[in-house]
Amino acid sequence: MGKWKYGVVLDAGSSGTRVHIYRWLNRDVARQKATDVQLHSLPIIETDKKWTKKIHPGISTFGEHPHDVGPEHLDKLLSHALKQIPPEDVPSTPLFLLATAGMRILPERQRKEVLKEVCDFARSTTKFQLPDCDVHVQVIPGETEGLYGWIAANYLVGGFDQPKDHDHGKGHNTYGFLDMGGASAQIAFVPNATEAEKHANDLTLMRLRTIDGTSLEYKVFVTTWLGFGVNQARQRYIKALLDSSSSKELPDPCLPAGLKVEVTQDGEFIDSDTDDEDGPKEKAAAELVGTGKFSECLHQTYPLLEKEKECTDSPCLINGQHVPAIDFDVNHFVGVSEYWHTTHEIFEKGHKDKAYDFKTYQERVDEFCSQDWKSIEKGIKKEKWGHKVDEDKAREVCFKASWIISMLHDGIGVPRVGIEDLSGSKNTTKAVLDNAKAKGFLDPFQAVNKINDVEVSWTLGKMVLYASSEIPPPSESALAVGFGSNFPGIPNDFQYPGGVPKAYESDSDWHRLFVENPRRIPGFFIMVFILVFIFCIILGKERRSAAKQSLANLFLAKKQGKDPLHRRRGREGLAAKLFGSGSSSSSNANYERVDLEDGDAANEFELEETYLDSSDNELSDDSEGSRLGRTSGWATPQVKTDTAGAPSYFVSQGSDVIHQGAGLGLGPQTVFGRTGLLSRTDSRERIKSRANSPKRAKGMSKLDE
After folding, report:
1. Quick one: average pLDDT of 176-193?
2. In which element (H, E) is residue 98 found?
3. pLDDT surpassing 90 at residue 521
4. DSSP state letters, 232-284
5. Residue 399: is its pLDDT beyond 80?
6. Which of 37, 152, 287, 688 gives 460 a disulfide partner, CB atoms 3.0 to 4.6 angstroms apart?
7. pLDDT at residue 266, rounded to an integer
8. Residue 191: is the preceding peptide bond cis (ω within 30°)?
9. Strand ranges (DSSP E) for 183-226?
10. How far apart are CA 109 and CA 91, in angstroms?
11. In the chain, ranges of CATH 3.30.420.40 domains
């Protein structure tokens, strides 16, 4: 395992897919390098602007031809990720593709086919860690997207790591989170103690883990409003205009004065610059003519909140959906995506950290939208509002601004800073406070894009949760990292960041050695070699020779099969040779037991001329007035010859003598005591029974005489 751990998240939205790459120190290195403060903090997640890449359109457009999603869409994103991550770290890098609103509206069959193709393509073309496609490649509900965003915002602001620095009163130190895309909008926050107890069943239990293993637990309310993103809200708005009149030319107060735009029956704008090569233009249902009356625009967007819908579980905010009462004394919200782009890209150019102020914002929007379209076009060419603002954005911004204001203040109920009296509240502010960072985000609402130069994205929240889950728990009883229903312990619907953990990955020492720490393998085998070498040195030369001979005999036995000429005694194994526990052994030869009643075997048996040291002999039970001699096999005297060159069967000291066949299972043996000589001769009948052996006949001729 290297110094860094990497993670890749593909945010598959309705308009396109963006790849995000993150990295953090692996858990061992992080613990070694962390200060006392950092040990009590979550893992430090790093990213870089060049590590992100977005392509259009979204994967939902591949519903009719899912097989093209890999080569035509994912290939560019995965190739970009592989260029940023060291090759040796790719197999340990988890890959996630999490789709949002665009994929939610696809038919179920098409959705499954597209996701399957995504997983198959990633597995076949990369080595990214992708163990469970149901977890790593999926369409996440809006609530999960909102929860990840809540984690990211609080992680960057510091609500998790430095709770004392973010005391909002009443023991509250986390921030609420608001997100709005093209198709949906989300809200996530921790209600005050009273509301949390009252609506406990509506909350999500979420657990994180700091570097030192400390568990952090929060109970968060999160919900999503599908169809309340800016693009779908605009479509609903245009449909309402079309339904209100049969005229082909309709006044639109949410467009700059003098701007004319054709729209379809579905509420989509028709681009007048569409070429014939791109296909025929869609049929226009009507033409909208801008009037630039922003106050009227606000009035006409209010019904889109659908606050009149029945609330079955009180209280509700919009669309009849239940939301616990928000205490703006302690619930301070940060808003991202459209909340940031619509409030800052045009109207706060050059003031990136300026706090949102309703009065100032509405004045600037009203000033912009009341201009005639020709004046706005000239300003765009001069980059009056920055190089990112083009005609499409300028055409849409008036409706978007109206929708943001309606959602924030009429829908969610955020106090209108600069207009409404907030006396007695902790959130009292001046009309405009330029530095939101210095304020500590204590306004009821603050639009942000980056915090500490890091983009606030729900994908970051996903990685924070995953990195946190990789930190080992301090004990077996510690609860897992993840989220689920607000019940004690691990609820049935609990979601683990990387899928359900497998026991062998955390409980097996061998798995940690060979999979999680492959660099330790060479050291492991070197250690084994050293231990074997030391063991061989301790054995000594004689025992090593015995072991070598035993291995050689074992090899020959396997090679030559059941040939009786080459069988060795089964009872004398390697252990017997090493430790001298076998019977009648020699350092130079091993003998087999031969049945002398078998004439053929006896004839084939050749007796070696060997002397045995009598000092190592042991006495066995008497048999026909004779005793069997045994030897340890550590000392085998060489055969001595007399001056005539014939073999001598007596030791030179004249004190001990052993017959040539002693200890070989060839009949009774002669044993020599230390004080006298005991000699023995075989009967002529037994000698003759072995006369067919040439060596025996030659070696025993003088004895016969």
Report:
1. 93
2. strand 95-99
3. no
4. HHHHHHHHHHHHH---SEEEETTS-BT-EEEE-TTS-EE-TT--GGG-PPPPP
5. yes
6. 152
7. 81
8. no
9. 184-189, 204-209, 215-226
10. 31
11. 1-140
502 is written with which tokens?
Answer: 């497998």
DSSP state of 217: E
Angle at 499 between CA 113 and CA 83, to 5 degrees: 70
CA distances from 233 to 73, 267, 592, 701 (A): 28, 10, 96, 120
Q: Which two tokens stand for residue 28?
A: 């061992």
- pTM (whole model) above 0.85: no
Residues noted as catalytic: 145
Mean pLDDT calculated for residue range 171-175 = 87
Measured between alpha carbons, how far is 695 from 455 in angstroms, rounded to an integer? 95
- Record the tokens describing residue 458, joined without a space: 């729900």
What token pair was written down for 429? 């502010």
3-class DSSP assignment, residue 621: coil
- Residue with the two structure tokens 């619907």: 493
- Annotated binding residue 183: yes
Q: For residue 230, which phi and psi values (nearest 5 degrees)?
A: -65, -40
**Residue 26 contacts residue 67 (beta carbons within 8 Å):** no
pLDDT over 90 at 84, yes or no: yes
Under DSSP, is residue 376 helix (H, G, I), strand (E, B) or coil?
Answer: helix
Instruction: Check whether 184 is labelled as a binding-site residue.
Output: yes
How do 204-209 and 215-226 pair as beta strands? antiparallel
Distance CA 362, CA 212 (A): 47
Contacts of 271 (CB under 8 A, 6+ apart): none
State the chain's mean pLDDT as an integer: 77
**Residue pair 703/681 in contact by the 8 Å Cβ criterion:** yes
For residue 131, what are the CA distances in angstroms to 7, 95, 120, 136?
14, 9, 12, 8
Q: Are strands 176-180 and 333-337 parallel, antiparallel or unpaired?
A: parallel
* Residue whose C-alpha is closest to residue 131's, from 161, 94, 99: 94
Residue 562 has pLDDT above 80, yes or no: no
Instruction: Please tell me the predicted confidence (pLDDT) of residue 38.
Output: 83
Q: Flag whether 286 is marked binding.
A: no
Q: Is the pLDDT of residue 591 over 60?
A: no
More confident residue, 128 or 670: 128
Provide the pLDDT for residue 602: 44
Owner of token pair 């924070």: 464
d(CA 592, CA 206): 74
- DSSP H or E run through 289: strand 286-290
Q: The tokens of 298 are what?
A: 């606000």
Task: Return the ∠ at Cα 310 (arms to 309 and 314), rounded to 5°.
Answer: 120
Q: What is the residue-wise DSSP string for 18-34?
A: EEEEEEEE-HHHHHHH-
CA distances from 641 to 609, 638, 646, 700 (A): 12, 10, 6, 15
Question: Minimal CA–CA distance to 22: which of 45, 50, 56, 52?
Answer: 45
Handedness of CA 488, 493, 498, 502 (dihedral sign): positive
The CATH class for the domain spanning 1-140 reads: alpha beta
Contact yes or no for 4/24 (Cβ under 8 A): yes
Instruction: For residue 41, give every residue at least 6 positions away whose Cβ sits within 8 Å of its Cβ, in sequence order, or none.
Output: 34, 160, 161, 210, 211
